Amino acid sequence: MPQAEAAAELADTEVKKTRRAPARKPVTSVIEARQPTRVSIRDTFSLDLGYVTDSKGNPEKDANGNPVYKDHEVSAFSDRTKWVPEIDPDYVFPVEETKILLLGLELKDRILITGETGTGKTSLIEQVAARLNYNVVKINFDGCVTRQDLIGEWVVKGKEMVFQYGILVHAFKMPGTIIILDEWDTISAECSFVLQRPLQKDDGKILILETGGELIPLHPDNSICATANTTGQGDETGLYSQGTKVQNYAQLNPFGLTIRMKYLEAAKESEMIGKRVYHLW
Question: Do β-strands 160-165 and 14-16 pair in parallel, antiparallel, or remain unpaired?
Answer without folding.
Answer: antiparallel
